[in-house]
Amino acid sequence: MSNLYKKYDIAAPRYTSYPTVPYWDNAPTTDEWVNSLNNAFENPKNPWSLYIHIPFCESLCCYCACNTTISRNHDRYEDPYINCILSEMDSYHKAVPALATRPLKNIHLGGGTPTFLSPRNLKKMLEGILSNVTIDKDNFEGSIEVHPNYTSDEHLEILRDLGFNRISIGVQDFNINVQKLVNRIQLPKATKKTVDSARRLGFVSVNFDLIYGLPGQGQSEMANTMDKTLELRPDRIALYSLAIVPWIKPAQRLFKDEDLPNPKEKRALYDYSKTRLLEAGYIEIGMDHFALPSDDLSIALNEGRLHRNFMGYTDQQTDVLLGLGVSSISATPDCFHQNQKVLSLYEAQANKGAISTMRGHKLTKEDQLVQSQILDLMTKFEIDFLDIEQQEAVKKRLAPMIDDGLVKFDGTSLSINESGKAYLRVVCTSLDERLLRAKPDAMTFSKAI
């Protein structure tokens, strides 16, 4: 195993957006944000995507860095939150009439645990939204993150009947000793039952989220997780590095240092898992993701139309991503917008019929250029420079990686070699002008490896 991980295991963003959230400035007013949405719909054929954040979980998974609310009090949260979501959507319809007529290509429910909602409430929320929009019948994709412990066949049947065709299961690890350490007990038989039900009901794609670097996770545990994963053969797999960010999520301080694999062991877990997946016929998709050759992500990769946004990798590209719910992020070509992250503040704004606003960012021309370059690296592992001055600056920053055979320059092109794919986040930092100018002296992001 190469020792390069020691050299390049630096703190780096995951680049689900550029600029990354810590470096957002020049926030739009609510009116400016609405104008940006309306401008993005000037072309009457422009489609859009929708993300809905359901923050609730019955228990806290200690590794989680998502915006969550932990409670078993369904009566307190379900109906009030659904009413807020529907009110927020109604506010957007009034401000942006095109949302009713432009084709909706994609809807994704994330969390938290979206199936925290009862089947009745899940149906109420989705019908309230989908009945007032125009679904792209030829290319519609509906996806949802599910927890097998809280997902019934009734949930899946309702989702299927509403056009949903993809599910994502947060497996993380199949070993009970690891599950206990991270407070997420999810027996393999529960996962299998959800997978079998989804496939029986006609869902075309099942994704597993796996994490390497968890406490208690060693070679034998990872081997067991990969064995059980390959037995179920999900269509997609997200293989994430455990992001240690205790300054954001204090629950991660419950980990003991001696429970965590050291950097060398963690790197070995990634190398082992990647090898198993490639040997099993999966295709590496950008950063952290793998898919079967028949999956739409693999097809999009081969056809050069793979895309990435706040929801992750997708073959569905739209100029507008609208986020509903607490902490949700929206995007247009020239603007980012985030809802209130505190549930009570979000509820107060939504109940007033206002568009929830916490912060945002108006993209400069430089931002848009770097955004497109980082997207190309994340989806194609290569970019072409139009600006010689920028190219020379990036080349200088990447000199050590060039010497180590991780990246190469060919004329005006930068490409990442096979051995460099594991360091994709690090390569992207060479383009990140805002990060380079800020020179952060405190931990802002998790380690890259």
Q: What order do the helices and strands come in, and which of them pair?
A:
Elements: H1 4-8, H2 30-40, E1 48-54, E2 56-57, E3 69-70, H3 74-95, E4 103-111, H4 119-130, E5 134-135, E6 141-146, H5 153-161, E7 166-172, H6 176-182, H7 188-200, E8 205-212, H8 219-232, E9 236-241, H9 263-279, E10 283-285, E11 289-291, H10 296-302, E12 307-309, E13 312-314, E14 320-324, E15 329-332, E16 335-338, H11 343-351, E17 359-362, H12 365-380, E18 382-384, H13 388-397, H14 399-403, E19 407-410, E20 413-416, H15 424-429, H16 433-438
Parallel strand pairs: 1-4, 1-14, 2-3, 4-5, 4-6, 6-7, 7-8, 8-9
Antiparallel strand pairs: 9-11, 10-11, 12-13, 15-16, 16-17, 18-20, 19-20
Question: What attributes characterize this protein structure?
Answer:
449 residues; alpha/beta; Arc Repressor Mutant, subunit A; pyruvate-formate lyase- activating enzyme; 2 domains; ten-stranded mixed sheet; three-stranded antiparallel sheet; globular
